[in-house]
Amino acid sequence: MTAITIAIVDDHPLFREGVSRTLSEIDDFVIVGEGESADDATTLATSHRPDVLVLDVSMPGGGIDAISDILARSPQTKVLMLTASEDVDSVVAALRRGAAGYIVKGIGSRGLAEAIRTVVGGSRYISPSMRAKVEKTLLDRPASLTPRETEVIELVAGGLTNKQIARRLDLQEKTIKHHMTEILSKLGATNRTEAAIRWRQGA
Question: Which ranges carry the HTH luxR-type domain (predicted)?
Answer without folding.
Answer: 138-203
